[in-house]
Amino acid sequence: MTQQEWQARAGKVLPGGGFGNYDASVFIARGQGSRVWDEDGNEYLDYLIGSGPMLLGHGHPEVNETISEQLASGATFFANNSAGVMLAEEIVSAVPAAEQVRFVSTGGEADMYAIRLARAFTGRDRIIKFEGGYHGMSAEAQMSLAPKTDRPFPEPVPDSAGIPAAVAADVLIAPFNDADYVASLMSDEVAAIIVEPLQRQIPPEPGFLEALRDLCDKHGALLVFDEIVTGFRFAYGGAQAVYGVTPDICTLGKVIGGGLPLAAIAGRSDVMAHFDAGKVAPGKSLMQVGTLSGNPLAAAAGLKTLEILKRPGTYEKLIATGEKVMALVDRHLGQSGVEYQIVGHPTLFDVVFTDKPVRNYRDIQDANASHMATYNQAMREGGILKSPAKLYPSLALTDADLELTSKALADAAGRLSASA
């Protein structure tokens, strides 16, 4: 069947004709290595990589073999399994904040529980989050994720219908990279600050994460790093290892499941104890149950993925590849005559069409959206599959892939130059 036919079928049974994730007109039939093919047979170089999980590329033979071996022994049990224990041990050994781990199935769940855990530990209700920061689909996370209006800080803007108005009272919104403003919000009512160490693609300015750590220590709040994206991507220890700031709680996902649904909350043992009703006072424990939490297929796939990532030279290769792609962007867009910046980290970045410093969500919103649309369309037509605002390099990229990337960028630069 063609993509158009699939789209017609999807429109009858799926709201909006899709899963709510990506362009609903795109139906991916298969993936291998750095490439994916849609239902019409069109081949794309994949810089979307499943929104991040496929860091090794699609269909890695060692991961596939591990999944097949586990599948022969069973898909899920709703009970402990050895792969899950070994994966938790590896996370604890790798991630500075992780003394204990609790598995869930999605990053959104992990972030929801991290917020609840911070409230349980501190006995406080208020949460500070950053405008434009993505932390899943909970009511708190859906405050000022993508606001269409610039309300004055710290007033939150609900991003979804169905969120009780009362939720807004306990969520304070701050601009990313503004530690002084965060300091003005701190009080003995704040349970936690939740932050992506790299917010979507915006890096923290020097000293910003350290200031958040100091503010939490000063006021008895917890620092939560959402490392769903950056965990095991920036480095084996995640962004917290790269930036040298250790949170009290961190959330992990994407890479740790090896392409299958798995996420985790990790943190200090005294904080994580609130998942164990036998270790805390009555009324202080969190109930957390999930049919597929710690699923053995996902745990085995994740464990094998981490084993591969841990091999010597792996992150050096990933970062070098990302830097090569960044250099290609500069080479071609630098000749386009339009103002742009590459914003992010070699393992996760994109172009922002602006001549102003990009420090926070509003700086992204003020950039040239028309140029971005032209750029993304040209990249798609040039055989590049990417997020509208992110580009994920993978370890599967080859020299031929970089040549294709260069050709697509050259075309994009030409279109931008013509429209400037």
Brief sketch in words of this structure:
With 420 residues, the protein is of the alpha/beta class.
Written description of the protein model:
Helices cover 37% and strands 14% of the residues. The chain has 420 residues and is an alpha/beta fold. Helix 3 (82-94) runs parallel beside helix 9 and helix 10 (314-333) runs parallel beside helix 13. The relative contact order is 0.15. The mean pLDDT is 97.
Please describe the topology of this protein:
Blueprint: H1 3-13, E1 28-32, E2 35-38, E3 43-46, H2 61-73, H3 82-94, E4 100-104, H4 107-122, E5 126-130, E6 171-174, H5 179-185, E7 190-195, H6 208-219, E8 222-227, H7 239-243, E9 249-252, E10 263-267, H8 269-272, H9 296-309, H10 314-333, E11 341-345, E12 348-352, H11 361-365, H12 369-381, E13 384-385, H13 399-419
Parallel strand pairs: 3-13, 5-6, 5-7, 7-8, 8-9
Antiparallel strand pairs: 1-2, 2-3, 4-10, 9-10, 11-12
Structural class by SSE content: alpha/beta
Helix and strand string, N-terminal first?
HEEEHHEHEEHEHEHEEHHHEEHHEH
Outline type = globular
The main pleated sheet reads as: 7 strands, mixed
**What is the distance, rounded to the nearest whole angstrom, between the alpha carbons of the first and last residues?**
40 Å
Portion in helices: 25-40%
The whole-number mean of residue pLDDT values reads 97
Radius of gyration, rounded?
A: 21 Å
- Stretches where pLDDT is under 50 for at least 5 consecutive residues are none
Q: How many separate helices?
A: 13
Strand share of the residues? 5-15%
What is the tally of beta strands?
13
Strand order of the largest sheet: 4-10-9-8-7-5-6
